[in-house]
Amino acid sequence: MRLSRYFLPVAKETPADAQIVSHQLMLRAGLIKQQAAGVYIWLPFGLKVLRKIEQIVREEQNHAGAIELLMPTIQGADLWRESGRYDDYGQEMLRIKDRHDRELLFGPTAEEVVTDVVRTYVKSYKDLPLNLYNIQWKFRDEIRPRFGVMRGREFLMKDAYSFDLDEAAARDAYRKMFLAYLRTFTRLGLRGVPMRAATGPIGGDLSHEFIILAKNGESAVFYDSQYEEHDWTNTEISFENDEASIAARKSLVDEVLHAYAATDEMHDEAQFFASTPPERRREGRGIEVGHIFFFGDKYSKPMNAKVMGADGKPVNLQMGSYGIGVSRLVGAIIEASHDENGIIWPKEIAPFDVGIINLKSGDPATDAACNQLYDALIKAGKEPLYDDRDDRAGAKFATMDLIGVPMQIVVGPRGLQSGMVELKNRQTQEKTEFALAEVVARICV
Ligand code: ATP
Ligand code: MG
After folding, report:
1. Which of 49, 81, 210, 289 is the most exposed place for a label (fewest CB within 10 A)?
2. Which residue, 289, 315, 343, sits at the end of a domain?
3. Residue 58 covered by a domain
4. Are residues 399 and 274 in the same domain?
5. Is residue 60 in contact with ligand 1, taking CB distance under 6 Å?
């Protein structure tokens, strides 16, 4: 992409209405624009990041055996009456009436809708296990939307729902998602800390929140320093349904939960302090980026979602649900990865792989070198952002740093006289000189 032809409204000043750094940077770097309280337009640059996160979440859900569908944002009130939640959910639910005076709502979650799908089509234990998910906008009329996309009213969520014949199988479904979440957050360049949680309006008896550690997190977290050492990228996890895989998942989840206890103030702090040696205790703040629940027949019973068991008798399905805040993650990642100059995107989700800064747009030799690099990078499968605008070098450096492109190639007439360009690492700010002919190969290693 040539910056002169892109739509990237960046701002120098810190917006006065944004309290935390991720919100400020998302506004300044042209990722989002507020439309109404807690409702945002995703500008092209922000949308690119959102889509990349969404895709990683999707790949890891698929890898864990979940199957994607797409449920509507608008739901009928009747299903929520069946489950008994229509009145319970309270003012967070945005209720709508259509022209025939029929009651609708903008879905805050989709347990009822997906349970209705499954009770319609799934009749036998032979069709299980089943995990259906979607990545869809939700609306919750939060009393205090704040911090930009971190606590919006409209937000993008991945929500998965597991259906099993009995509790043992449902607990395995829970463990699959638990492990898929660890893999997902690792791929996003984050450390997701699983924390035992209260179950809230979703209900049920087993629940974990996944927290990422960040200074501006909403909740206090106590965690074991071993969290910082465990590398999930190297852990092979089988998501098959054979006995050996099921047993391996159980021991892996147990290992994580026992060896790496974490808690927040509200929950089992006492137990954490009892079981964690003092030198390994850490305290920080956390952002909730995911939340998983096992709740048995809480929905299947009132909604009469049954399958035929092996003995020919109908039984209520055992369910769990599993959320990831996809749009919140954009803010959370920036909270965890920025400096005084702007955003530092982890490689996997960077909206552009590499920036090209032309120090003297209009100079034929410099333009030619930049164009050559730009074409070569695209040919090599990279996505470059080329700052070809007629602007001061300082402004170009500031923009490229603000928007967080991980690698930047600086091309100027002086270096070119000896055939050299500069490669800058956004994170370390390290600069290295390379021959123009060599730099693309360096980036592609
Ligand atoms: P919170 O405790 O932050 O209000 P929640 O427990 O109500 O969240 P869940 O129902 O567990 O949220 O939703 C799953 C995920 O969706 C959360 O872990 C979070 O990442 C995301 N999420 C929930 N509410 C919002 C919101 N208002 N804005 C952005 N993301 C949200
Ligand atoms: Mg939650």
Report:
1. 81
2. 343
3. yes
4. no
5. no
Angle value at C-alpha 99, between 95 and 100, nearest 5 degrees? 95
Confidence band for 218, pLDDT divided at 50, 70 and 90: confident
Whether 320 and 389 map to the same domain: the answer is: no
Ligand lying nearest the CA atom of residue 288: 1
Beta strand spans in 273-388 (E): 281-296, 306-308, 314-316, 318-325, 338-339, 342-343, 354-358, 384-387
Q: By alpha-carbon position, which residue is closest to atom 18 of ligand 1?
A: 290
pLDDT of residue 336: 92
Number of structural domains the chain divides into: 2
Percentage of residues in the chain having pLDDT higher than 90: 80
Ligand 1 atom closest to residue 210's alpha carbon, by position in its atom list = 18
Answer yes or no: are the C-beta atoms of 409 and 354 closer than 8 Å: yes
Q: Please choose, from the candidates 163, 165, 137, the residue with its C-alpha nearest in 3D space to the C-alpha of residue 152.
A: 137
Confidence of residue 200 (pLDDT cuts 50, 70, 90): low
Q: Does the beta carbon of 152 lie inside 6 Å of ligand 1?
A: yes
Q: Which domain, by its residues, includes 230? A: 3-343
Same domain, 119 and 222: yes
CATH code for position 80: 3.30.930.10
Question: What is the distance between the alpha carbons of residues 421 and 407, in angstroms, rounded to a whole number?
Answer: 13
pTM, two decimals, is: 0.95
Q: Is the CB of 291 under 6 A from ligand 1?
A: yes
Indicate the angle between helix axes 44-63 and 326-336, nearest 10 degrees.
Answer: 110
Strand ranges in 326-366 using DSSP code E only, listed in sequence order: 338-339, 342-343, 354-358
Whole-angstrom distance, CA of residue 222 vs CA of residue 281: 7
